[in-house]
Amino acid sequence: MAVDSFRAGDEHSPDRPRPTGLLDVLSVAAVALDTSGRIVFWTPQAEELFGYTAEDVLGQYAAQLLVRPEHLQAVVSLFSEVLQTGRGWAGAFPIRLKDGSSRLTEFRTMRLLNDVGEVYALGIAADHTLLQRVETDLALCERLINQSPIGLALLDPELRYLLVNPALERIDGVPAEEHIGRRLREMLPFFDVGTVESCLRQVIATGLPLLDQYHVGLPPSDPEHEHAWSLSFYRLEDPGGRVLGAATSVVDVTERHHAAAEADRARRRLALIADASTRVGTSLEVEQTARELADIATPGLADVVAVDVLDSALACRRVRRPDNGPELFRALALRAAHPTVALRAADPPGDLTSYEGDRLVTLCVHTGRPVLVRHVGERDLSRIARNEEAGAYLARAGVHSYLAVPLIAHGEVLGALDLKRTRNPLPFDDDDVVLAGELAGRAAIAIDNARWFQSVRNTALTLQRSLLPDHSAHHTGLELASRYQPAQATSEVGGDWYDVIPLADDKTALVVGDVMGNGIDAAATMGRLRTATCAYADLDLAPDAVLQHLDRITCDLEHYIVTCLYAAFDPRTGRCTVANAGHMPPALARPGRAPELLDLPAGAPLGVGGVEFETATVELGPGDLLVLYTDGLVETRQHSIDDRLNVLLGFLDEPERPLEETCDLLLYGLRHPEDHDDVALLVARAL
Questions:
Q1: pLDDT for 601-647, tens place per residue?
Q2: What pLDDT band is residue 272 in, cutting at 50, 70 and 90?
Q3: Is 211's pLDDT higher than 50?
Q4: Within 13 Å of residue 536, how many CA atoms lie on the same side as its CB?
Q5: Cis peptide before 655 (omega within 30 of 0)
Q6: What is the DSSP annotation of 246-293?
Q7: Does 450 score more than 50 pLDDT?
Q8: pLDDT at position 24, please?
Q9: The CATH number of the domain where 613 resides is what?
């Protein structure tokens, strides 16, 4: 390098290294003596260190000026030895300052020879206390850096490594010497290395440290597992304020990261279970419950979810499960977290499919235990899918993990919850098995309740419909239409009924009644009362007498109260005699007149006992419309009964409307999905 490059005023030249500030911190002084011991050279640092100016000391004997009498002999001896032998000396002794005090000063002395052979003694001096402090600081820093369990690195302003301690070497899994001189981006294993570089440049530019920055990545020492680190960044400056670069501290927080991730998974599992407790089993419908289970398991537990129930379980048939034979499943629900061809491999809801004994879902129901395939291979797909084509769809969808959990209620295996992962990169683990088992257990109880309820309901409905009359649309002098509809909200069968009974002399009895309660018992009670009504009607009794007999029969039936309306129409006279036992009043619509409710003596319900009933007479002319119904048609939890009866009358403003159309209009116009009662409806038009 040319000497010209070191000229004064060129201290920022890019062609040479910038000076450090360490010598300025130490304030090293230089003093030169001739062979007689007189001071011939005195630097400004010497003036700062000892207090004497150059004018004060040049030409003076150094020993007499700077050394106290008690040290004079030792200093002179050392001075002579350096000049005679040429060996340097290092040590410390007190120097007398200009103000009379002393300062322990550390010296390095050596003999100098100029170009004409003259000999001098040169002393390099610095405050001993300051040197000790710097030395201690350096030793402490070195120990802290080398022995610290925290990874430490120093980087220059261009983010090149200057120093790496052993702890960081272990964290990175890369030797320290391979770091030096290389840029940060080349060495960091973080996924977001660009963010780290940006943070460091910000720290270098502003001087504001950034603490506890959380980053994750795959270190070279363990590339198969994700690690986490906490990073802090600080700017480094020399005593003069010049920016040297940045320091980085790295703390491995992988265990804390994994613990937090596991805690988060546990919270999500608990939230999923809590959600399932409110969302699964909201109705007594098997299909709805299965759909709710599939919805809750997607995507929190799996990407593709299917709920399949054994056909024998749906039919409430207990069969002995074969050890390895095929099973007949009915698909109830299918759900995917995202569009996927895996849906084409599954059975559509409602389909009935036989799975061989070697299929995993069959194994699940045979053993009553979960079947887990953490990492699905090609051979596994052939045991998961129903056939080769379905297996190809699963492979295309990227199914990499599989779990089947049995649906068990009261010790009986009802079916299986089938789970697959495609986009979720994690395989199913033991915790997922526990979670899936919890969800499946809750859903299985709801499915079990629903299937038995549906079985009982179907039995009651069959009984109910078998007990209702299959009457002709025309009787002498009358045109008839009727409807029966179970409760829409609960799908339960109640004790509502209607009847059309031919009487002597071309007369016709019209009956509508309501056994309070629901289920098979209510339907059976209704059947007994209907049979009794037909028997008493055949005796050609007056309506009030029929109700008297029915009341005595009902009193013998335990815990049952029944409302009933009995009307007998004589087409020869056009008279309709009516008796009411606590039932809703019939509606009458006449052509050209406003519809009205018949004002009849209400009477007490059947089963109260000891109450007299009254018979009223109503004239029916041609075209007059008489509407008999049970309370399920008009009663709701949100509206008053008077308002609902007015709505009923509003639907009867056209008495000439076809009767079948009138029945449909009343049912669809007055019934709501939340209605909890069944309905019997009988409409008659006088001819």
A1: 888 999 888 789 999 999 999 999 999 999 989 988 888 899 999 99
A2: confident
A3: yes
A4: 22
A5: no
A6: EEEEEEE-HHHHHHHHHHHHHHHHHHHHHHHHHHSS-SS-HHHHHHHH
A7: yes
A8: 65
A9: 3.60.40.10
Closest C-alpha to 527, from 485, 468, 470, 583: 468
Burial class (CB in 10 A: 0-12, 13-18, 19+), 672: exposed
What is the distance between the alpha carbons of residues 526 and 495, in angstroms, rounded to a whole number? 5
DSSP letters of 638-668?
A: SS-HHHHHHHHHHTTS-TTS-HHHHHHHHHH
CATH of the domain at 115: 3.30.450.20
Please indicate, yes or no, whether residues 114 and 176 belong to a single structural domain of this protein. Answer: no
Rounded to an integer, the average pLDDT of 386-401 is 92
Q: What is the C-alpha separation between 304 and 418, in angstroms, rounded?
A: 8
Give residue 279's domain range: 269-456
CA distance 637 to 244: 80
**Two structure tokens written together for 380:** 């596994």
Whether 311 and 409 share a structural domain: yes
The helix-helix angle for 430-467 and 286-297 (nearest 10°) equals 160
Residue 166: burial class (beta carbons within 10 Å; 0-12, 13-18, 19+): middle
- Answer yes or no: is pLDDT of 488 > 60: no
Residue count (the chain):
687
Query: What average pLDDT does the structure give for the chain?
Result: 85
With the C-alpha atoms ordered 298, 301, 304, 306, is the resulting torsion angle positive or negative? Answer: negative
In this predicted structure, what is the pLDDT of residue 544? 94
Cα atoms in the Cβ-side hemisphere of radius 13 Å centred on 291: 10
Tell me the residue type at 396.
R
Question: How many domains is the chain built from?
Answer: 4
Query: Of 101, 132, 163, which residue constitutes the final position of a domain?
Result: 132
Q: Residues of the chain with pLDDT > 90: what percent? A: 40
Say which amino acid occupies 637: R
Q: Which two tokens stand for residue 206?
A: 């502003």
CA distance 250 to 109: 45
Q: Give the mean pLDDT of 191-196.
A: 78
Of 618, 592, 623, residue with least CA distance to 685: 623
List of residues 6+ apart from 238 with CB closer than 8 A: 20, 21, 244
Strand partners, 436: none
Please determine, for residue 371, whether its predicted confidence score (pLDDT) is greater than 90. yes
> What's the token pair of residue 132?
């000790």
Strand partners of residue 92: 106
Distance, CA of 617 to CA of 569 (rounded, Å)? 10
Q: Could you give the 3-state DSSP secondary structure of residue 558?
A: coil
pLDDT, greater one: 655 or 241: 655
Pairwise CA distance, residues 500 & 541, whole Å: 16
Say which DSSP state 606 is in: B
Asked if residue 406 and residue 432 are part of one domain, the reply reads yes
- One DSSP character per residue, 472-491 reads -SEETTEEEEEEEE--TTT-
Q: What angle do CA 629, 674, 456 make, to 5 degrees?
A: 80
Task: Pick the closest to residue 371 from 417, 339, 312 (CA basis).
Answer: 417
Q: What are the backbone angles phi and psi of residue 100, rounded to the nearest 5°?
A: 95, -15
What is the model's pLDDT at position 1?
Answer: 35
**pTM, entire model:** 0.52
DSSP 498: E
Domain boundary among 391, 425, 456: 456
SS3 annotation, 425-452: CCCCCHHHHHHHHHHHHHHHHHHHHHHH
How far is Cα 124 from Cα 82, in angstroms, rounded to an integer? 14
